[in-house]
Amino acid sequence: MANQTETQVELRPVSMEQHHKVSCFLAREYRLLDEEKFDEWLALMHEDVHYWMPGIENRRRENLLEHGFYASDHMAYFDDKLRDLQRRVARFQQPSAWAENPGTRNVHQVSNIEVYYGETDGEYLVHSVFQSVRSRGMDEEYVIYGRRTDVLVEEGGSFKLKKRLILIPNATLSCKNINTFL
């Protein structure tokens, strides 16, 4: 399954100044998550956000052109709208969230950022690579890495995240849970 956005739209790179602004937005987003400033992180979401991390299927090479590695009707780790993200954040903030006691310490990194003009004015298509290191202290540490495709919308002098597609290369997670945002 080809990426629909790229096959229908000619990719036009933004200026270095706009690329820098988008890169700063992505770095700030991860800093907010690492510092557990979840309400500030939610404020970066567009009201129509779609935050999607589909499960990856192992397929034979000859089937990739027709089916790709993932499908919208297959299982997803995340398939969230704004209300779902708000509920996840509310759960993280509860003292009874036993899966987060002791709290997970996160370090997120973003790199390989490519920024293109989107389909409409004020919209940007952003590709990036991420790494998320999660530690519960002692000897429990997990690393999740992958690629993201985001659609950002300019709003109020900054950006809002309207769409996020998160792709990890593994067909299964190597950690016990996914109590994090990527």
- By DSSP, the count of extended strands is 6
Q: Which spans have pLDDT < 50 for at least 5 consecutive residues? A: 1-6
**Which series of helices and strands comes N to C?**
HHHEHEHEEEE
Average residue pLDDT:
86
| CATH topology grouping | Nuclear Transport Factor 2, Chain: A
Oligomer: single chain
* Beta-strand fraction estimate: 35-45%
Distance between the termini: 22 Å
Largest sheet: 6 strands, mixed
Q: Using the CA coordinates, give the radius of gyration.
A: 17 Å
Helix content: 25-40%
What is the helix tally? 5
Q: What is the CATH-assigned architecture?
A: Roll
Class inferred from helices and paired strands: alpha+beta
Strand order, largest beta sheet: 2-1-6-5-4-3
* Structural shape: globular
CATH class descriptor name? Alpha Beta
- How many structural domains in the coordinates? 1
Keywords: Aromatic hydrocarbons catabolism, Dioxygenase, Oxidoreductase
Pathway: Aromatic compound metabolism
GO molecular function, one term: dioxygenase activity
Family: Belongs to the bacterial ring-hydroxylating dioxygenase beta subunit family.
Description of the structure:
The protein is of the alpha+beta class and 182 residues long. It is 26% helix and 36% strand. It has a six-stranded mixed beta sheet. The longest helix is centred in the N-terminal third of the chain and has 19 residues, at 16-34. The radius of gyration is 17 Å and the shape is globular. Residues 1-6 have low confidence and may be disordered.
